[in-house]
Amino acid sequence: MHARLQRQHIETVVRLSEGRADLAYPCREVIQRSWQRCVDEYRLDPGRPRPVRVLTRQALLDCREPIDELLYVARAGIDQLHAQIAPLGHVLLLTDRNGVTVDFRGREDQDRALHRAGLYLGADWGERHAGTCAVGTCVHEGRAITCHQREHFDATHIALTCTAAPIHDPQGNVIAVLDISALQSPRSLQSQNFALPLVTLYARMIEDAWFLHRYRDTPVLRFDASRSFVHFNGRGLIAIGEEGRILAGNGEARALIEAHCQRWSPWATAGLPAATQLFDAELDDLLGLAVREPDQLRAFRVRATGETRFVTLIEPCRPRAAAVTEPVSATPALDRLAGDDPAMHRLLKLARRLRDEPVSVLISGETGTGKEVLARALHDSGHRAQQPFVAVNCAAIPESLIESELFGYLPGAFTGGRARGMRGLIQQADGGTLFLDEIGDMPLALQSRLLRVLAEREVMPLGADAPVRVDIRVMTATHRDIAALIEAGGFREDLFYRLNGARLSLPPLRERADRHFVIRSVFEALVAERAGRVRLRADAMSALLDCPWPGNVRQLKNALAFALATHEGDEITVHDLPEECRGGHGVWPTEGVTERRAPASARVPASARVPAWQAAGPEAEALQALLARNGWNISRVARCLGVSRPTVYRRMRRFGLVPPNRRELIDD
Ligand SMILES: Nc1ncnc2c1ncn2[C@@H]1O[C@H](COP(=O)(O)OP(=O)(O)OP(=O)(O)O)[C@@H](O)[C@H]1O
Prior knowledge:
By secondary structure, this protein is an alpha+beta fold. 41% of the residues lie in helices and 15% in strands. The longest helix has 20 residues, at 195-214. Bound molecules: adenosine-5'-triphosphate. Residues 337-565 form the Sigma-54 factor interaction domain.
């Protein structure tokens, strides 16, 4: 059946391209023109159908690079459009201006069929190779187009229905093409009537998002014929430079500028008019729109046409001082911990209120979400900031040592102890904050003693006969379900209530809306620790944004440290990232497997393990080397690193580093 249709199709194309009308197949003019080009210009032979050309991995990366930042800006639009068309059986392609597919959203259940049809990454849908098709013909015509089934030139593609719309840069050149395609569809072209306006709408949204991104440091006038639409969907955008000079405009604005140039032809040669020549306005009127007008908009007359446009002003972004100019220090204060994530905002608002309150704070969150960082920031922003912050990882200290570590002991209190005795960590925190990490791992017997410390505010060192008063603020953290532990009899309920004076729950990184901010902050902090300037390229940023981060900020930090340690030159690209973080960005689809990028949250379960490379990352290797050099003497290593011994234990545990002889773990 398909072979017969293909034969019929080839005959039709041959007849029409030879100028012989085929009344049985009424062909649209735009399609006919393209078929003619395929035969006359590109020398394609309709009698020899061929599958779509696919670029090599390197060639695809080269095509991706110039528009990588656009892909990053376009992500939300691409995902939204895909969510709408996927239930209708369509897939989505974004190609560069030559028709090479640089981004793709497909369907898992159609992998093989999509692959065979050329609907996947790296496929070249330029008219020159693929013949008449939505993408290629859209690029040639410079406008949105549907290419339905037998309108395709090449008989290989006649089952497909495709609709593509161009995406223009602020200068009006096509920079990319947005396409939706389906392997099967009803015969009639009308069945695809929904596609053209939908793809055109999203192409325009992406175009405008790109425009606003490109001119984010410049005042932009946004205008519309409707007063009520201008703020949220003003169709025209004009970026203005010094003295109101127009730097660029989107499609709507370019139409106004063209009308202006036609009316006053000298403009056509003298370049772009100023905004005050386009609109009947003073520059002050335009630049003052945001502050002077009650609803931040005003009507102006378009000089060339006499029509009215409602104009508003989008002021240039002022970079957040913390995110851009100020490197994040090792212990970020509360304000530096988040960008615009709503859950983090709520959390930090509460944390600010708790700064100087004498309540115990329990911080929960998956591993690596920054529980200790939050505890330290809370400490640093309160009145105890100048006093010690002592972090204890209850899971990292061997059970036999935890009591003496926490409570300390007097000389001769037990065999094996230091001759001079030891001040416990609780006492070391006197005046400041005691941060008990992994509190769920605290042995039951010690829970009772800790409860006494909290209730009485005094500590009884081992071997002492009188308690010592302590003034500490206690913060605890856990990634375990304490309620379940209490239920199972592994945790004292009364202690839990003491510790849980206030609860701060850190969201996992993959759920944070401010991932961009976190990536930037962590990167800048790491760069600040090293000499030299390094840039995080947009393709690396896109990959990092897509990563599911089961190990949260710690994993992110390690991935960036890895990239900084191994990259060459002055920028980090997607290829410098550990393989686990590249997702679809650096990975070439294997035979029969179509590249797809589902939303991060859908791909990796929350419980997914931290990848193996992390254990072998540079941080782990460096620690292992340092431990070996110091004969596994933890105190010495802690001094070298400028951290506490529990921190060294914690890191060892995290990286799975086990000393060759456990006895050597006892400090000197
Ligand atoms: N906002 C942040 N900015 C910079 N680095 C951060 C931030 N949050 C966390 N980190 C880094 O991520 C790593 C993990 O942070 P932290 O130890 O606070 O996590 P955690 O939730 O306490 O982990 P665990 O559950 O394993 O104890 C640390 O190296 C820390 O410096």
